[in-house]
């Protein structure tokens, strides 16, 4: 038997495969998994928030009472009671969302893949903010679009730029709350402007919102979905409020678009685990999230506060950083002459890790930015890591 | 709030979306779900074979002992112990398969999607047998290939045709055992010929094998994978031997191709449920399948025998049908003048359902074929349904 490299074999690969990049972050997580490293690199939620006992109990109950249904093939658009539960929860601001608008997906990332299948042709114009979620860039890239960066400032997408360059775009990707990687939140006025502009140009907005529930103060800005549910596709996930390991998310879209997502999903993986959907419904139907989410918010708010305080104490004044109102990330802008990739290597040598900013730009624009995550590191270690990183940066000024 | 049709809104859809078809079978299953219907239409395994108690126990153990790991994000290529277990199980005929060749996927259907991402460009030549698995046609179609039908006879793909039309193809799709929809099995000699021909032309063979373990007699023909593991991609699934509702399968490929599948999977859904993988490993690691699979084989063999005996008794001699050595399906060829779609409607009116054959042909060739599944219908009902169907067909001769 010979096992060879497919390139050596001249296996006939697709164009997209030849251009495929692995996630810089997932690769980097392998480097930073050493226990001695203080890692601000992860995008993982805190496992202390996983309701293990409750889920165990729900698996028990579902398998005991409905094992044959839970373990059989299920409907492509999802388990009906869970779809109804999500539709009810998403019906806010006087707008009724129907279960026929809900497609259950195997995590938000799959929502991005299915939306790309339905909306993107090779060469299609696709608008993204800068910087933006790396996973979205990867998902879109599989369908070979013309990715165009929309100018973004401290509070997110600049609506005028969307109006100027958006005509003919297949979609605008717009995560509204505590965005990954910057932690910034799009203000209400900009949401309204973007919804109006995109409706006029007939460009669907993809409102990807995995962090929306993690507002430290509990405030919530109106979703773009409820400003125009015929032109906005909303994506949600159980990864940050329950557990990511089960891969469960959802897409809310106009009914006819939902039917297309259903067909695309049928071709992609038939359906999402029936068992997992039934268990999550079982675990959540009694209002559990109303007690659980505040616990996560409190924990993350304290972790964030600890990191911000340490940055205040230990980071040189030449640095700028965001002060998120929720979520899991702080975004740091270094003086222009410091390359964050280079800094990363020196920092890891001192057992502190973060994510360099360049992968979050579709065209690798800024080399002087980095992302810090604070949710999984014990608080004394946060101070220690930030102090060490601050000293390293100071040595370069 | 207005909810409108995306076409009415002129939402900018992709070309593939405009051409998307829903699975005729999944749509049909909705029609045939009425309890009074004797349905031979499903492709579902028998829920009587699901080891519910064992899985419940495994969920308990994994969540109790390793809850925080099981519920956290996991590696894109899969849970390492499960990958090793699969590699060991796939190492047969003196050929060693390494865990680095194994990618865990969310069901075989996802394997087809990922392989398409990596191998197919718009317009690429893709070879399929006739008739073939509908889900594969759907998965490939998302990437807009030029699907070419390879002549196939009672024992499957005709190697000479592959040699004649295969040059430059991106892949040959070749389910070897008890194929869906026909139940036919590719003989050893043809496997060897196909492997040799495709190696010469540098066309990867996709050996999709969800039914291979369900040989009634327990015999197993050598996998094409072990004839040339550098040129054959093997796909397996837990859907037919454990449970489909959890969505778990795997792809065995040359290591460098596996790395590409990993990148494609990262962009597609990050990873398959970590919890599910750990639970399946927990449930199977002690050799459970060695006791469990023979139980499924015996059940399906008896069900198949019942249906074949009934067909012998009640079907007019003008009909031809396959006699599978394993799996879940029998394929019927009617006299040419009978349209099986038309027959389906009349048959459902008499409370008997099957799947008309046309969707299994990429170019809708034969209108006089149909698929019967026997695994989920109680045996007296099998006889009753076949008798009724036989009379209906006889009335048309």
Automatic annotation (TrEMBL), chains A, B:
* Gene Ontology MF term list: pyridoxal phosphate binding; transaminase activity
Query: Where in this chain does the record put each Aminotransferase class I/classII large domain?
Result: 51-389
Keyword line: Aminotransferase, Plasmid, Pyridoxal phosphate, Transferase
**Example of a GO biological process term:** alpha-amino acid metabolic process
Question: Which SUPFAM superfamilies did the record assign?
Answer: PLP-dependent transferases
- Its quaternary structure? Homodimer.
Tell me its family. Belongs to the class-I pyridoxal-phosphate-dependent aminotransferase family.
Name of the featured protein: PLP-dependent aminotransferase family protein
The scientific name of the source species is: Massilia forsythiae
């Amino acid at each position: 038997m010979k096992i060879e490299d497919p390139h050596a074999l001249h296996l006939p690969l697709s164009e997209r495969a030849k251009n495929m990049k692995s996630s810089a972050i997932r690769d980097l997580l392998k480097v930073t998994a050493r226990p001695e490293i203080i890692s601000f690199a992860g995008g993982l939620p805190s496992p202390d928030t996983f309701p293990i006992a409750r889920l165990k109990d729900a698996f028990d109950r579902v398998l005991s009472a409905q094992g044959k249904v839970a373990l059989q093939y299920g409907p492509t658009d999802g388990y009906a009671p869970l779809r109804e539960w999500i539709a009810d929860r998403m019906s806010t601001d006087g707008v009724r969302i129907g279960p026929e608008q809900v497609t259950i997906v195997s995590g938000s990332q799959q929502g991005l893949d299915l939306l790309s299948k339905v909306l993107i042709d090779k060469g299609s114009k696709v608008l993204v903010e800068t910087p933006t979620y790396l996973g979205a860039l990867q998902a879109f890239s599989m369908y070979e679009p013309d990715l165009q960066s929309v100018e973004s400032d401290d509070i997110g997408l600049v609506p005028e730029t969307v109006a100027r360059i958006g005509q003919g775009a297949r979609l605008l990707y717009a995560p509204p709350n505590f965005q990954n990687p910057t932690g910034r939140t799009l203000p209400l006025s900009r949401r309204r402007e973007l919804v109006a502009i995109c409706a006029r140009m007939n460009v669907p907005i993809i409102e990807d919102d995995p962090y929306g529930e993690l507002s430290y103060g509990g405030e919530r800005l109106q979703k773009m979905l409820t400003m125009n549910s015929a032109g906005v596709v909303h994506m949600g996930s159980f990864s940050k409020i329950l557990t990511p390991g089960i891969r469960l998310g959802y897409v809310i879209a106009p009914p006819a678009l939902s039917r297309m997502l259903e067909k695309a999903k049928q071709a992609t993986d038939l359906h999402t685990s029936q068992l997992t959907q039934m268990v999550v419904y079982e675990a959540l139907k009694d209002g559990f999230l109303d007690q659980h989410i505040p616990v996560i918010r409190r924990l993350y708010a304290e972790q964030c506060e600890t990191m911000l305080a340490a940055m205040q104490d230990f980071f040189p004044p030449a640095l700028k950083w965001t002060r998120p109102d929720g979520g899991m990330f702080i975004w740091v802008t270094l003086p222009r002459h410091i390359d964050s990739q280079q800094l990363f290597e020196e920092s890891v040598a001192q057992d502190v890790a973060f994510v360099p900013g360049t992968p979050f730009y579709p065209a690798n624009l800024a080399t002087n930015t980095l992302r810090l995550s604070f949710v999984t590191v014990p608080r004394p270690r946060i101070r220690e890591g930030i102090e060490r990183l601050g000293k390293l940066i100071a040595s370069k000024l």
